[in-house]
Amino acid sequence: MAPIRDDTVTDLKDLVAKLEIRVRQLEDRLGRDGAKPRTPSQSMRMILMGPPGAGKGTQAPKIKDKYCVCHLATGDMLRAQVAKKTALGREAKKIMDQGGLVSDDIMVNMIKSELATNQECANGFILDGFPRTVAQAERLDQMLKEQQQPLKHAVELQIDDSLLVARVTGRLIHPASGRTYHKIFNPPKEHMKDDVTGEHLIQRTDDNAETLKKRLGTYHAQTAPVVSYYQKKGIWSGVDASQEPGAVWKSLLGVFGEEKPAHTGMGSSILSKIGLKS
Predict the structure, then answer these.
(1) pTM
(2) Cis peptide before 225 (omega within 30 of 0)
(3) H/E element, 171
(4) Which CATH architecture has domain 39-159+208-254?
(5) Does the structure show a pLDDT above 70 at 90?
(6) Which residues participate in catalysis according to the annotation?
């Protein structure tokens, strides 16, 4: 048998690299378009915590897209239930119209309803804005246990309060999707226009330094016990949110076990089978 030339080896490696890329594309397409829902043990089920301006609005959509899960921002969910005039929505509206706070049971039941009826939740969920107290965390855990969908992660985006003022006062939001931008740190491609839809961006009236300090005080008072609760359960992780968004994303992937050494899967396997080293 004639010896294998260097250029033949190079051609084979190029072919393997192209095959790897094609396989990953097909796997990604299958996962998004036609794959069966993941089993409970495979699902992404998490809480995303962090003070105003920490980057939840930037990172949650990326988690949602990568893992094909639903993003349940409880404020938006509550408004949607009221707008749809569901039984829970009508009950919540009655309480809010009287100036009261919606009960933990109503909020947990709204989450339960979304998990049962929202097709985007088939592979898991990101909870944003709930729970805010240990009592809410306990009630949520009870419901998720009954549904055989226990939480896998409670991730806190951590950042010093002093850094948040510059972030929040320059924040821009696309109301329809919740996508966030920043005038300095993450500007849209076109001034005051959403990159995806081209629709106008807004700046929230409560995104100012004085309001932020009050919100931070409330956040820290409420969140510290909840963080301790999830730390004891062994599912809490802290991520440095003072990094640029790309670095925060890599840190999140590390929490989810996605950051791995350089790929040595299919290519190495194919080359080894034909007697070549990659």
Answers:
(1) 0.66
(2) no
(3) strand 171-173
(4) 3-Layer(aba) Sandwich (3.40)
(5) yes
(6) 56, 132, 171, 204, 215
